[in-house]
Amino acid sequence: MVQIETKEGIENLEKIAALDGVDTCSRPWASGSWCLQLLLLGPADLSMAYGYPILNPDFHPEVEKLIQHMKDVAHAAGKKWWTFFAVIGNLLTSI
Predict the structure, then answer these.
(1) Are 88 and 32 in contact (CB under 8 A)?
(2) What's the confidence (pLDDT) of residue 30?
(3) More confident residue, 92 or 47
(4) For the domain that residue 46 is a member of, what is the CATH number?
(5) Could you tell me which of 24, 15, 64 has the C-alpha nearest to residue 43?
(6) pLDDT per residue over 33-73, tens digit each?
(7) Distance CA 42, CA 21 (A)
(8) Which domain holds residue 18?
(9) How many structural domains comprise the chain?
(10) Which residue ranges does the record assign to the HpcH/HpaI aldolase/citrate lyase domain (predicted)?
(11) Which value, to the nearest 10 degrees, does the dihedral of the CA atoms of residues 14, 59, 45, 71 take?
């Protein structure tokens, strides 16, 4: 699993997604385990890296575009993608 949350990560997203072995596995030592080729996006840190507010009340439209771009790149490379954010004060979580 690779976490993307910086400008450098976004700039190299296609190269990162093309890597073999970008996997996250459940109990790889056990029978019935599974592995996913997964890219994880940290939208709050990515927002800060680009100088945008984290939530106002939603992510900045440019960050929304970056999230969509990551989704498109991940799928084109045959990988899954996942994102989440949590605002501790409001106990808000989105997956």
Answers:
(1) no
(2) 58
(3) 47
(4) 3.20.20.60
(5) 64
(6) 656 677 888 888 899 999 998 877 778 899 999 989 999 99
(7) 20
(8) 2-94
(9) 1
(10) 1-79
(11) -20
